[in-house]
Design brief:
This protein is mainly α and 365 residues long. It has helices at residues 37-53, 63-75, 82-99, 109-120, 125-144, 173-185, 193-203, 207-211, 254-261, 282-295, 307-318, 323-330, 335-341, 343-362, and strands at 3-6, 13-20, 26-34, 218-219, 224-227, 230-232, 237-239, 248-251.
Length: 365
């Protein structure tokens, strides 16, 4: 049972929490010094509740070690790609570099905010947000393990280096049509990169999903493409889709299927295997895309193959397609992900629609 004892100067009290360690031995721990006896008792009671509910086997573990343990137990099987595995390793290294041997139980929110400020001083917002998200999820597990009682990673201010932010300029509808026309004007089945660019424009599929397509995934009768796997270009092997909801069937237009039929001449199970027997990589696709954009006079900062997915979304939004339908087409788990990822586009079209709504409502007056 918790208790109090007078301070040495006789002008206050120390709160004492009573608990048992992992060997069942009875121990005491100070809850701090307080002027009032009741405050000392309240703090001791709270500390006692924490200690008696604490997982003593992990009580001394550092944040860096717990993060590594959390990744091995819960994330290593999900992060199948080498790039995802490497991202977690880099995060772990950053945590260990800053916190060193600091115990998980000793980290306060202010300590963690200093860490975010330190990391954010040399990293872009997206990198800081990803790191904070991973640590926040990790610390939630530490709470479930009865190591700590509060998540110090919640409600922190995300700090980041504004100079690290790369501005991406996207295509207008006219530019998109011109890009599609120039891409389709010089199709050659021996070089499949252009076909992949057209597929990205007209489906919004991820690069790895396009790379992984086999002829069995394309239904020429019903004009659909089935997304059921993705491609690990470093290992040159199939892997699972990014998420379970990424598995989907996409309706496509007949013109795209007509173009893809040309690739049957390569006599490969893989749709986009080229004359060299390989699937074009990110570098090859971006090089091809930049070349086409230069040919048709389009200059855009930070534009690359994945940007075509954003362009696909922008075009559909501009045509009045419902966000829910777009979310399903993209393979997002829910509409919230779509709204967050493409908020800049949705805000843009919201502004246009607000004006349209006002104009339509004026007809009632």
């Amino acid at each position: 049972m918790s208790g109090v004892k007078p301070a040495k100067n006789g002008k206050g009290y120390y709160g004492l929490a009573i608990y048992r360690d992992s060997n069942g031995k009875r121990r005491q721990k100070s809850a701090g010094w307080f002027k009032l006896k009741r405050d000392a008792k309240a703090a001791a009671d709270e500390l006692e509740r924490q200690l008696n509910g604490q997982n003593m086997d992990l009580a001394e573990i550092t944040l860096a070690d717990y993060f590594a343990r959390w990744f091995d137990l819960y994330k290593s099987n999900k992060a199948r790609s080498s790039s995802a595995q490497n991202q977690y390793r880099i995060m772990g290294n950053m945590i260990r570099e800053y916190f060193k041997e600091t115990k998980l139980v000793d980290i306060k929110r202010s300590d963690y905010q200093k860490f975010i400020n330190w990391y954010g001083s040399t990293h872009a917002r997206q990198s800081v947000t990803k790191l904070n998200g991973a640590i926040k999820a990790c610390v939630d597990y530490a709470i479930d393990d009865d190591i700590i009682v509060r998540n110090f990673a919640r409600n922190v201010e995300i700090a980041y280096d504004t100079t690290k932010k790369q501005k991406v300029e996207y295509l207008s509808n006219k530019e998109l049509i011109r890009l599609k026309q120039f891409t389709a004007s010089k199709l050659d089945p021996r070089n499949t990169s252009r076909y992949m660019i057209l597929t990205a424009i007209l489906t919004g599929m991820r690069k790895s999903e396009i790379q992984a397509l086999t002829w069995g995934d394309i239904d020429f009768i019903h004009a659909t493409i089935s997304v059921n796997k993705s491609w690990e270009e470093n290992k040159k092997a199939f892997k699972s889709t990014k998420t379970a909801t990424s598995k989907r069937t996409i309706k496509v237009n007949r013109k795209l299927l007509t173009w893809l039929m040309d690739l049957k001449a390569n006599s490969s199970t893989m749709v986009f295997q080229n004359v060299f027997g390989t699937i074009p990589t990110s570098n090859a696709l971006n090089k091809c895309l930049r070349s086409i954009m230069a040919d048709c006079g389009i200059e855009k900062q930070g534009f690359h193959f994945h940007s075509l997915r954003h362009v696909h979304v922008a075009y559909l939004l501009g045509q009045g397609v419902d966000v829910y339908a777009i979310s399903k087409r993209l393979g997002h788990a829910n509409v919230t992900i779509t709204l967050n990822t493409y908020s800049y586009l949705i805000d843009e079209y919201k502004a246009k629609n607000d004006e349209l709504i006002i104009n339509q409502l004026e007809a009632l007056l």
